[in-house]
Design goal:
The protein is mainly beta and 700 residues long. Strands 12, 13, 14, 15 and 16 form a five-stranded antiparallel beta sheet that branches. Strands 17, 18, 19, 20 and 21 form a five-stranded antiparallel beta sheet that branches. The longest helix is centred in the first third of the chain and has 4 residues. The chain is built from three helices and 52 strands.
């Protein structure tokens, strides 16, 4: 759960802790949090803090300081009295500052005064406009472990031991590595010097904690003057690892020093050493950490985790490119970040479940660093420009999909992402049905609809109805039996997606998908929060005919007396077009959609003997990733296939014709024979002809 001050200076909360959001259930969008008193509802704020008690996942409290210096608290009830009561407080409620004092900055921390107890108490610390320190919470007695020298819990009281100094910032640090250390608070003086202020245990180290006396030590100077300081864990080669302090110098250099505590409750500060980032980056902001690594925002707006000066100790965390550059951690929770243009993001590591957010995008923008991720949190202007949805998880599929029917492993499966470079291969047909599967990247959004641009002119002219997903319609929502039983082909969760489909035929814009080739089409997805477009490359790949790959002219005939021939094609799988030529250089080539029979004209060389060769290359089609088509030669091995035929354009020469009847025979010269009238009786005709090239097979 996060609580933050928006650009309008109001309080906003989101997440699972309803005690903070004031809602009946978890919320995924920043929700306005109003003070409990009606007259304070328009109050603006300048500081906010949130903390969770470690003995429970649901006990959480928040505090905020208004611009007029009032201190407000709310959250889950607890014996630590942070809320001024042990009961829950449902909305920001004022807890009084001492008379005449105005709060400036608030901090909530977690500490324990009994190492053998599982109870952790929340405490509050507030700075007033004069830099004086006040505390409350922690309880007067929690499980018999007294906060000696602390306040009585429900009352905000000035810390007398710090009254001689004035401070501008505070950082909390609880160290469990030494049982005698209860709480440590780091305070920055107005001069810039940082001080340590600790609640520690007096007496023998191994005596049961609840039988000992606790007291606050006088503040001690740390010798650090940088504007930002925080705690963490660091490993530095042979030195091993331990807890210590990070600080950011004025020039952005990050330094770390180990902190050791003796049994006499004294700190010793190690020698500071630099923690350089790759690429000469400096550090803009760093968060505290009690687990593996501290997260930081570098000078170029990228996010990193540091835990060591070893090679593995500096890990770049990939963020969606839309989020970059990051500007700062948002509000009270380092899991939320302010990104490019004031956009709000929820970081989640690969180690933990996703913190509630509402809009997801592609997690990685490059190959460097951890594949962790972030979720876009919808905001309506609280932290910058109002959010407009620009990302839908989507895919396009078809019953004609190449590889669907036979589950071909080589065809690939339609990609279910929200990236822009996507393609789908289908078999040709007089009518090809395309299904679009999509869901909003924003949780709980309504008003889903879509339109098609079938002729790639940038105009979405074609509507189609949106409905629930129909199972078994395409490969994305069909089942097959694997080695472990019935599983889903691509894992699409039908209940989470919507579908829309369209039938493409000769009557559609752009025409039918009835022959090999390709075209681009686009889809516009819309929701109540915005819209986004997705451009798809649709590739029509006719199925390979039976037989070996090759070509034949006139079904293998040796001769032809016409330049018009029929070329038979058997193409390899994945082919869309054939490049046909009468010349091996392909200078006169024509590219045609593949078909089992293609009409072709041989090159005429005039009368006489001519052996004609036909040259064929088979091409596939792929999108080039830049909105166009890739050159076929770049994408697949190209081979020349040939067949030849003898073209005989010289007619046969008839030298004589004779005819005889049953009663008499007459023989005439050729010219005389042509003058004969039709016989009046049965006759035998003899023809003598000559063809020196291809011979004579018939006389008519």
């Amino acid at each position: 759960t996060a609580i933050a001050i928006g650009a309008d200076k109001y309080l906003y909360a989101w997440g699972a802790a309803t005690a903070i959001t004031g809602t009946a259930a978890a919320v995924v969008e920043p929700t306005r949090v109003y003070p409990s008193v009606a007259g304070d509802r328009d109050q603006t704020f300048r500081s906010v803090a949130i903390a969770r008690r470690e003995n429970t996942s649901t006990s959480v409290a928040a505090a905020a300081v208004s611009d007029n210096g009032k201190l407000y608290v709310w959250g889950s009830g607890s014996p630590d009295l942070l809320l001024g009561t042990s009961e829950s407080v449902q909305s920001p409620t004022e807890i009084l500052m001492p008379i005449g004092k105005k709060a400036l900055k608030v901090f909530l921390g977690l500490g324990t005064t009994c190492a053998q107890s599982s109870y952790y108490a929340l405490y509050g610390l507030v700075l007033d406009e004069d830099g004086k320190v006040y505390t409350w919470g922690g309880g007067s007695s929690v499980q018999n472990c007294d906060f000696s020298g602390w306040t009585d819990g429900a009352v905000v009281k000035e810390v007398s031991t710090l009254s001689a100094l004035s401070f501008t910032n505070v950082v909390g640090w609880r160290n469990n590595s030494r049982a005698q250390l209860g709480m440590t608070i780091l305070l920055r003086q107005s001069s810039g010097d940082w001080y340590q202020w600790s609640l520690t245990k007096q007496g023998t180290y191994n005596v049961p904690c609840c039988s000992q006396t606790w007291s606050w030590k006088s503040p001690s100077q740390l010798g650090i003057t940088s504007s930002m300081i925080t705690y963490g864990y660091f490993e530095n080669g042979s030195d091993g690892g331990n807890e210590g302090l990070y600080n950011i110098a004025d020039d952005g250099t990050l330094r770390f020093r180990y902190v050791n505590q003796t049994n006499s409750n004294e700190w010793t500060m190690g020698t500071p050493f630099a923690v350089p980032l790759p690429g000469n980056r400096t550090v803009r902001q760093i968060t505290s950490s009690s687990d593996y690594g501290n997260k930081l925002i570098a000078s170029d707006g990228t996010m990193w985790r540091v835990s060591s000066n070893l090679v593995w100790g500096k890990e770049k965390i990939n963020m969606p490119i839309e989020a970059l550059p990051l500007s700062r951690f948002a509000g009270s929770n380092s899991s939320f970040l302010i990104g490019n243009g004031g956009s709000l993001w929820n970081y989640h590591s690969w180690q933990a479940s996703q913190i509630p957010g509402s809009c997801a995008v592609v997690a990685n923008n490059e190959d460097e660093g951890y594949s962790e991720g972030a979720t876009r949190v919808v905001s309506s202007g609280q932290f910058g420009p109002a959010f407009t949805e620009d990302s839908f998880k989507n895919a396009i599929d078809s019953p004609n999909y190449v590889g669907f029917a036979d589950r071909s492993g080589t065809a690939g499966t339609p990609t279910l992402t929200n990236t822009w470079d996507k393609e789908l291969a289908v078999r040709p047909g007089a009518t090809v049905r395309l299904y679009s599967y999509f869901k909003s990247s924003c949780v709980g959004t309504t008003g889903l609809s879509m339109k098609w641009d079938l002729d790639d002119d940038g105009v979405f002219e074609t509507d189609s109805a949106t409905s629930d997903v129909t199972n078994e319609a395409t490969s994305l929502v069909s089942r097959y039996t694997g080695t472990t039983g019935e599983v889903t082909w691509e894992g699409i969760a039908s209940a989470e997606f919507k579908q829309s489909y369209i039938d493409i035929s000769a009557d559609s814009l752009g025409g039918a998908l009835s022959q090999g080739g390709g075209r681009f089409i686009s889809v516009k997805y819309s929701s109540a929060k915005g819209s986004a477009t997705q451009r798809y490359a649709i590739i029509v790949r006719p199925q390979k005919p039976t037989g070996r790959v090759g070509v034949t002219v006139n079904a293998g005939a040796r001769f032809t007396d016409s330049t018009d021939v029929t070329i038979g094609l058997v193409w390899p799988e994945g082919t869309t077009t054939a490049l046909i030529s009468n010349d091996g250089s392909f200078s006169d080539a024509q590219e045609v959609p593949v078909a089992s029979k293609v009409r072709w004209s041989l090159q005429s060389g005039g009368a006489g003997l001519l052996s004609s060769t036909v040259y064929v290359r088979f091409y596939g089609l792929w999108a080039n990733g830049a909105g166009g088509w890739a050159s076929p030669e770049q994408e697949m091995a190209i081979y020349n296939y040939t067949d030849d035929i003898i073209l005989d354009l010289s007619p046969p020469e008839i030298t004589s014709v004779s005819a005889s009847t049953t009663s008499s025979a007459q023989s005439q010269s050729l010219n005389s024979a042509r003058a004969f009238s039709a016989p009046t009786a049965t006759a035998l005709v003899s023809v003598t002809a000559l063809d020196a090239v291809s011979g004579i097979s018939a006389v008519q």
